[in-house]
Amino acid sequence: MTPTDQRPLGSPFSAATAAEDVMDGLDLSGTTAVVTGGYSGLGLETTRSLAAAGARVIVPARRPDTARTVLRDVERCEVVAMDLADLGSVRAAAARIGERIDRLDVLMAVAGTMATPERLVGPGWESQFAANHFGHFALTGELYPLLAAADGARVVVNSSAGHTLTDIRWHDPHFRTGYDKWLAYGQAKTANALFAVHLDALGRDDGVRAFALHPGRIITGLQREMSLQEQVDRGWVDEHGTVVGAGFKTPSQGAATGLWAATSPLLDARGGLYLEDCDVARVSAPDEPMDDGGVREYAVAPDAAARLWELSLAATGTTPIAR
Length: 323
Known about the structure:
Elements lengths: L18 H5 L8 E5 L4 H12 L3 E6 L2 H7 L6 E5 L5 H14 L5 E4 L10 E2 L3 E2 H22 L5 E5 L22 H23 L5 E6 L13 H6 L17 H13 L9 E4 L2 E2 L2 E2 L10 E2 L5 H15 L7
Parallel strand pairs: 1-2, 1-4, 2-3, 4-7, 7-8, 8-9, 11-12
Antiparallel strand pairs: 5-6, 9-10
């Protein structure tokens, strides 16, 4: 994949497409999916949609009891305990998943945190980078043999237009010199996009293809650590919490691009791409506003993706994927 591959394909879908439109007529019987964050927000819409199409869905959850309650009426759905910010928990969850299945067709990395107060986890990692990137990096590495055992597996990683806030801060990824919650979020989302680029490069010979995406602007539990006043000041909601911002999607519309990435035949033999509005995104200029769409070239650069991969291997101790 090169940035020149980042051109829309002419998908029949759009920003207005809902999850049920993408999944209409699909039969996923006999397939297995893992959906992180699959019990709230976009993850819940994703879990319900995959299960309704016949897939078996496993949901790793930081709050497993809550997840089981939310998902109690979803058929073919199982919950395993997992905290993305705790690599021991991630590895234990992957081991439990490996005891239940012999192949994995779809891995959806939907869980995430946004604009959190400064927290350090593990050996002093910035928490958004740790949960959004390192946790999913380690989980994918642990589950990779199951992905390689499937017939054409896909890994779908939720990034965000927030990646336009910053490239990887190679000199200070954990904000030792001063914390900014939005730059920390932006860096984590850039990391999500770069992760898909290099995972695809390593996995394609095994039939494992990877995609990152911007789901759109949606009010979900992702904003849980932002005050209501901050969301009002940004023009997202009114004082009652009702969405008033222009261009916001419903949760179903927000889940659509991830489901399209996981299932669309238009993406057969493709990978390492950044998607938005159920299509491949264009490369955006450095000075374009975030909400104008597209992906920054630094977030799909193969050299940067390989560099981040090596940094992540060293930090997490994840078993390398042989090419």
